[in-house]
Specification:
The protein is 28% helix and 22% strand. By secondary structure, it is an alpha/beta fold. The strands form 6 sheets. Strands 3-2-1-7-17 form a 5-stranded parallel β-sheet. A 5-stranded antiparallel β-sheet has the order 18-19-22-21-20, with helices on both faces. The chain has a 4-stranded parallel β-sheet with strand order 11-10-9-15. Bound molecules: flavin-adenine dinucleotide and nicotinamide-adenine-dinucleotide.
């Protein structure tokens, strides 16, 4: 199947028109809610307009992390004396074989076919109906297939919206005509642009800017409208990532606005002609010329044409679907409509969408815990683990210090350099980053943690457990980290707190 095609008409498993549950959208959140409902004995239909697996599998997490990995491995080797010679030397790590990286990306996305994803649903008896789903009234979903044929599904119990998001395109004059990259074109690239400009220094922009620099782009420029990269994280995280970017030749402009974009189709030397990005008058430069412009300024929920008005909901453009703690859509009577994953705007992360999906499935199926109580929603929106796969990585969970104070908590933050433990030095010569805990002073429990450094992705789950379990500092003191691991930062942090 070529990219951009809509897959075949209907999964051979077939689908009843009156199942218990209809899920619109077969991304990570839709798949999981469907699978768990089916495991609970319900009959389930997933309606998918493109590919089962969603944005994450083909144009998000999987291809981006696959393209990041080779540069990360080379950079790690370069700071391990003895391996460094084999891996190249200089500001940018030795060359990544971009063609091999793209080939591995193609493998990881299953050649942009969802054949590999379907068995998981089939094994659970979930039917997939191909087409665009929309609400047409209470417990009523109309599906329009690629050939225009429509069929109506009338589930007995629930409809779950899991339609995700697409890249937001800001209304900058000339931008659309310049055919910018979005996450799909960037993660699906088949060649490395010599010059790449990136609009937006959030998770997508930061990860892909560094990935392309390491894949071989000679000039990479990030333009961020806010004061720093990774604005949702602790301020030191964005500053430390910026320092690392600049050390490897990525130019970062913060606090700047793009006011015009133009693709110069008269210029030779690039198949499409260079793109000229005009900046505001707030500073220098006033213009950036690149071969491609990646737009990564956030996400827009896929709610247009979803029929929200048919069930009395607002159809405000760019509006996320508001849900309660059990993932039921607010403002709809009867408790039959749910929304999980990106489309509800709570946490635009695959693992959180899948968590919400498990909660929603338990609510829909009436699952009870061993004590016979209904499965409760523990979907605490403050406890969101997240890893930004830049180098250094930014791995965090819970509240930033500022967010905790804004929430009225009396907190104390303690921080130590990630390089203060032997585990960091053993790994290489360039231990960078800061680790910080945010502690609720009265309860002596964590409410937030941030770990910036190489390979910190595996540190964050310990902090997640500590927050969810409300483990006191006195108990954490007895959770002894192994030597010589980077986890020893936990000990340093507790010592810094005064234990
Ligand atoms: C570049 C990039 C990198 C990312 N990296 C990470 C990461 O490392 N870790 C992480 O946790 N998150 C990451 N994310 C975020 C992650 O991709 C999303 O949070 C996740 O895909 C959301 O899952 P979802 O099921 O809610 O929506 P989606 O994955 O968007 O799936 C929605 C599905 O619904 C279908 N659909 C939409 N409308 C309809 C309709 N009307 N009828 C039928 N089908 C419909 C779509 O075709 C799609 O298949 C990344 C995102 C991007 C863009
Ligand atoms: N590793 C991961 O888990 C991962 C990776 C990529 C994406 N994601 C998820 O996807 C979501 C979307 O990522 P994203 O990077 O598109 O959004 P984002 O909200 O993380 O960052 C967007 C950035 O663009 C800036 N911006 C907005 N408009 C601008 C403009 N006109 N000019 C310049 N800058 C502008 C914002 O200030 C912000 O810093 C993230 O919130 C995250 O949840 C996760």
């Amino acid at each position: 199947m070529s990219r951009g095609d809509v897959p075949g008409p209907e999964d051979p498993a077939g689908a009843t028109s009156q199942p218990d549950v209809v899920v619109i959208g077969g991304g990570p959140a839709g798949e999981v809610v469907a699978g768990r409902c089916a495991e609970a004995g319900l009959s389930v239909v997933v309606v998918e307009r493109e590919r089962v697996g969603g944005e994450c599998s083909y144009w998000g997490c999987i291809p981006s992390k696959t393209l990041i990995r080779p540069g990360e491995v080379l950079a790690a080797a370069q700071v391990a004396p003895g391996a460094a010679g084999a891996a190249g030397a200089g500001g940018v790590p030795g060359r990544v074989d971009a063609a091999a990286a793209f080939a591995r990306r193609d493998e990881m996305v299953g050649g942009y076919s969802d054949e590999g994803q379907l068995p998981w649903l089939r094994d659970r008896g979930v039917a997939v109906v191909r087409g665009i789903g929309r609400l047409a009234g209470e417990r009523t979903v109309v599906v329009r297939a690629a050939d225009g044929a429509e069929r109506t599904l009338r589930p007995n119990r629930a409809v779950v919206l899991a339609t995700g998001t697409r890249a937001t395109m800001p209304p900058i004059p000339g931008l659309a005509e310049a055919e910018p990259w979005d996450n799909r074109t960037a993660t699906g690239a088949r060649a490395v642009p010599r010059r790449l400009a990136v609009l937006g220094g959030g998770a997508v922009g930061s990860e892909l800017a560094q990935a392309f620099r390491r894949l071989g782009s000679e000039e990479v420029t990030v333009i961020e409208g806010g004061p720093r990269l990774l604005a949702h994280e602790e301020p030191f995280a964005g500053d430390e990532v910026r320092a690392a970017f600049e050390a490897e030749g990525i130019v970062v402009h913060t606090g700047r606005r793009v006011v015009t974009v133009r693709r110069d189709r008269s210029t030779q030397g690039s198949a499409r002609g260079p793109v000229v990005v005009g900046l505001d008058e707030a500073g220098d430069p006033r213009q950036i010329v690149a071969d491609e412009l990646l737009v990564a300024v956030g996400r827009t929920p896929a709610t247009a044409d979803l029929g929200l008005e048919a069930v009395g909901l607002s159809t405000a453009p760019h509006g996320f679907v508001e849900v309660d703690e059990q993932l039921r859509v607010r403002g709809v009577e009867g408790g039959w409509l749910y929304a999980t994953g990106d489309v509800n705007g709570r946490a635009l992360l695959t693992h959180m969408g899948k968590y919400q999906a498990r909660v929603a499935a338990d609510v829909i199926s009436g699952r009870v815990d061993p004590a016979g109580r209904p499965a409760a929603d523990r979907c605490d929106s403050a406890v969101i683990p997240r890893v930004t796969f830049t180098d250094p990585q930014v791995s965090a969970v819970g509240l930033t210090e500022q967010a905790a104070r804004a929430a009225g908590l009396d907190v104390r933050a303690v921080a130590v350099p990630t390089g203060s433990v032997a585990g960091s030095s053993v790994r290489g010569t360039d231990a960078v980053g800061t680790c910080q805990l945010v502690v609720d002073v009265a309860r002596r429990v964590l409410v937030g943690a941030t770990f910036v450094g190489h390979d910190t992705q595996e540190l964050v789950h310990g902090a997640t457990i500590a927050i969810v379990g409300a483990v006191t500092l006195e108990d954490l003191w007895h959770a002894v980290p192994s030597f010589p691991t980077v986890s020893e930062v936990w000990l340093r942090l507790l010592e810094a707190y005064g234990l």
